[in-house]
Structure formats: structure tokens, C-alpha cells
Amino acid sequence: MSPDFIIAALMTVVGLTTPILLAGLGELVVEKAGVLNLGVEGMMLMGAISGFAVTVFTFNPWLGVLGAAAGGAASSMLFAVLVLQLNSNQVATGLALSIFGTGLSSLIGVSFTGRIVIPFTSVFPDALAKHPLFEVIFGYSPIVYFALFMVPAVGWFLKSTRAGLILRAVGENDHSAHSIGYSVIGVRYAAIAFGGAMAGIGGAYFSMVITPMWAEKMTAGRGWIALALVVFAGWRSGRLLVSAYFFGILMALELYAKASGFSVVPSQFWAAMPYLMTVVALTFISARGNAGSNAPACLGKPFLPSN
Amino acid sequence: MTTLNRRSLMKGVGAAATLSMIASTARAEDKVKIGFIFLGPIGDYGWTWAHNKGREAIDAALGDKVETIYVENVMEDASAVPVIRDLAQQGCKLIFTTSYGYMDQTLEVAKEFPDVKFEHCTGFKRADNVSTYNSKFHEGRAVLGTIAGKMSKSGTLGYLGSYKVPEVVLGVNSFCLSAQRMNPGATVKLVLIDSWFDPPKEAAATETLINLGCDIVTTHTDSPGPLQILEQKGLHGFGQGADMSSFAPNAHLTAIEDIWGPYYVARAQAIVDGTWASTDTWDGMKEGTVVISPYSAAVPADVAAEADKVQAGYKDGSFDIFTGPIYDQDGTLRVKEGEVMSLADLAVIDWFVKGVESAS
Lengths: 307, 360
What we know:
The complex is a heterodimer of chains A (307) and B (360). With 307 residues, chain A is mainly alpha-helical. Chain A is built from 14 helices and no strands. Chain A has helices spanning 3-32, 40-58, 61-85, 90-109, 126-129, 135-138, 142-160, 162-172, 174-179, 184-210, 222-232, 237-259, 267-287, 289-292. The relative contact order of chain A is 0.20. Chain B is an alpha/beta fold and 360 residues long. Chain B is 39% helix and 21% strand. Chain B contains eleven helices and 16 strands. A seven-stranded mixed sheet of chain B has the order 1-3-2-4-5-6-12, sandwiched between helices. A seven-stranded mixed sheet of chain B has the order 13-11-10-9-7-8-16, sandwiched between helices. In chain B, α3 runs parallel beside α4. Residues 1-28 of chain B have low confidence and may be disordered. Classes of the chains: A mainly alpha (307), B alpha/beta (360). At the A-B interface, α1, α4, α12 and α13 of A face α1, β8, α7 and α8 of B.
């Protein structure tokens, strides 16, 4: 195996990993605040079409990414109003958001089908970004570096800041947080918006970087993988990075195994691996009992201050 | 409490989602209803897009007599049954199920509705009220394989497919045999991604094939994603189902276009006239069902000449890529010298020819 070969393979892994890492990080913060938003797939698609549309009109991919974040966050607000204001069931509402986001993005996307956008130019000079060896570090779209930056940023926020502590308190014990004067609903709104924005940027990675085009349902289920990722990572941002790359490597391995004619195990086995691994991880987390689980105690429960 | 009623709001969200999935065009009680089941979104710019063009051809030709309805994104599993049944219950007299994976589901619903006629695309099971129709895509693949075989510098070609179904196996074999006619040492690396439409996976698979030495990659999945990867890498590929040159002006050499309109209009006319009968139709380049897009400027004249010869041969019936001797992957002689594979054999083919490197 030549260095070129390994570099090209690694770059494919980065491309497969970045969107699920972004969406997973967003969902991690949402779940840490005690809200389960299953609408990641819908928010990713809304981000994908918003980012694409803004780039088509402004010719500026940076504005496109902002548009993607806004599109994802806006669609998440629909979910937020339903679950926070009306206390609707989070699982059902999240599923509805996924279906709604898929449908609405398709509707908006009708007039954008068949168009392409100019992809991001490298943030680094071509001497580095197009260098046969260094491109493995410097040759990506800015979204990749943003995702990598957000991993320690989210970890630091949750662990070391006052706001992060409040967010975790809201997710662990909403009534206690409420009783000492924190706005449970307000914190959850902010968390859901952040999750939507991150999912939106993750979606835009598909429509603006990998394949700079719009196609209905182009995320093809990556939102669900991002959800599995959060559980697999045990709600820890560092572990989320490792897990996302582990999933990315599995996805690339499937393709390399197939293209190389490697048929010791059926190819469907590779495709099922991310989900199988999530089941295995869940089993371990459950077996270790509550002490080992980092799952927020109020996850998925509506907050009813009057009770 | 709140003025917004939670339950009614949820209903609204659900209804909006359902509406987006079922779209119907013209409405009139006396018109004959014709239904379509689509695999992907009509905006895929590939397989489903082409079928939808065919549906629009019915509207254009017979819009005063018929009304067409379609359902997009129907999975190829048991969940297709209620969707097909629903179209029949809505009063459709003719239902097109436009993918191989709807075969048994179509027959199941056809039994329940003996008065409704069904048309199943690319399958091989028929009944008194179930026709099958297909297109000889492999004739188009022979043209692409000829171009790829002659243009490739590495002699290693990539083939990105969906599932191991006869249509794909025929495409792979036709592409590989045609490339070997131009370059006897040509090999085809095959990746089947277990999906017809998954742009990120199609893109990653294309990167993988390129990394393994393929300098031309052809796709048998439905999105233009792979072409965009080839464009970024400065390599070449082909459009699938429709001309995709707008997505990758430099990478796009030509495309296989699926033209379903004439067949759909004829079958709709037969329903209107009451002359519909169960048939098996397998048209190709000769009938105009398979059309090759104009070659791009990147195709040299001598390559274009070879490709034109293949096209002409199919149009006048003098050429068939499935002419022996043909060896399979294990080196076993499958078709003897001078023999031509029959349509019946082609329809159920499940083995790859020598030179195809695959995991299954």
C-alpha cells in the first residue's frame, strides 16, 4: 500500500465521518439538556437545501453554511414549540420532524434540482491543500475543521463553563434546576436550536461539499446514524469523535472490501456494522448499570413545573 | 392553558407529511385513472425522473381521457403492497410498478383486483392482468463499455451498481465484454452499494474505485453524485438514466437515457380502447427506448466511431455483445463460440463474465 493509497482512503473516511460527527455533536448537547430529538434526518435535509439555496443566490459558500445552520435551527424550533410549549411526546414529535423536514426540503428543492454550486475553496494555500502528502491534513473544506474544532469546544462548554453546568443540571434534574431559578424551557430552546444548527451544517456538507448539488433525501439516513452515534459514545464529546471515525472507517471498509473482491464475510455485514455496534454498546452501557451510564436522567421526559 | 390544541396541531403535521408523499395531477370523475409506483424521488435526475417523464408523456398525449397519479419513494419490500393496493382502491385501471423489487408485491395485489391491469418494470413474472416491460439497458452499456475500454489508460474500469439483480448483472457483463473488445486486458472492478439512491455512499464508493486504480467509472445507481466526484478528480464517467452533463460538464462523456414515453402512451391508449392484453415487452435501441446522449468533446473521433458502430449494429440487429465465446468469472465457458444468448437466458442471468472483479 502506497502513501497515496492510504491518503486517498483516509480522505474518504473524513468525508463519510464529518456530517455524522456534526449532527451527533448537536444531538449530544440537545440530549444533555434532557430532550430527545429524533428529527435529525429532517433537520439535516433542511440544512442541506437551505445551504444550497443560499449559495445559489449569493455565490458565497460561507453564507451558505450560515444559511444551513439557520435552516436547521429554524426547523428545530418547530419541534421545540411542540415539545416544550405543548409538552407533546418527544419521540413522536421528533419522528414527525424527520418526515416533515424530508417533505419540506423536497418541496423547496424542486426549483434547485439539476443545479450545481461552486464548492468551497481551500482555507489553506494550494501548496499545502493540494500537496500529495499534506493534503491529508490541509486538503479539506472548512466544515471539516469546524467539526473538529467543535469537539473540544462542546466538551469544554459542557464540562467547564457555568452555562454548560446549568444545561447539564436541566438535563439531569429539571425540577431542581427550576427550583433554584433556572429557566428549564429557555435552556432547552437554546440546546434544540444548537442541535438544529449543527445538523443543518452536517446536511450542508452533503449538498455543498461531497456532491455539490441538491437531490431529494440526499442524506440517505445519515441522521439516524448520528442518533445512534450519541448513544454509542455514551454522551461524551471526545468519545463521539472516536465513535464517528470508527463508524466512518466501517463505512469505508465496506466499500473497500467490495471493490477489492474481498468476500470472506457478506458485504451486507459491513453495512449492518454501525447498527450492530450500537446494539453492542447499548448492551454494555445497560449491563454496567446506572453508574456507568452517562445518559441524562430527564432524557425524553416533558417538564411540567406545576406538578 | 394554551389556546393551541396539541392534538390538532399534530394532526396537521402528519397530514402535511402525507400530502407531500402523494401527489395527484388533473382531477375529473370520468377520466381513466392510471397509477405509478416510483422507487425514488422524481427529482433524482435518473431512474425515477425518466419514468416520470414517461408519465408526463401520457398526460401530454391523452390528458383529456386519462388522469395519472403517482407515489414516490416506495420501498421495495412488503410495505409496497398497501401502496399498490391503495392506488387500485382509488380506482386506477392501470398501474405501473417501476422497479424490479415490486415483482411479488405487484402479483399479490393483482390477484385481489382482477379488473385492474398492472405493468411491472424489469421483472419476469406475469399474469392475465400483469404485463412486464423492460428496456435493453445493456445495449447502452455496450456503447459505454466500448468508449471506456478504448479511452482508459489504466485498463481498470469501475462499475458502481446497486444490487445483484439481472438488470445490473447484464449491465456489468455488457460493459466488461465491450471494454475487452477494445482492450483485451481490461478489467472491471464492481461495487454494489445495496441501494439505488444514496449520494454520499455513491460518492465514497466512486472515490474508492478511483483509489483502486479505475480511471473511468460508470454508475448503475441513480444520482449524479459519482460524476461530481469524477469531475473533481479530473476523470471521466457516464450519466445514468438521463443526460447528467449539467452536473459534471468535463467528466460526463455520454449517458444512457431511458425513454419510456412511447411505451407508456401506447399502454394507456390500450386501456382507453379496451384492447389491453398481458404481454412481455423488451425494447431497446432499435425501438428508441434506450438512447445514447451526444458524446462530449472529450471523446476522441476514433472512439466515437467505434461507439457509433455498436449503436448502428444494435439498431439494424447485426450486433449483440452476448455472442460467444463468453467465460464466467471462474473461467468456465458459458456461451459457446458463435452462439448468442437468448432473451430468456438474459432475463435471469446471475453470473459475471471473466474480467469482473467483485465481492459477490
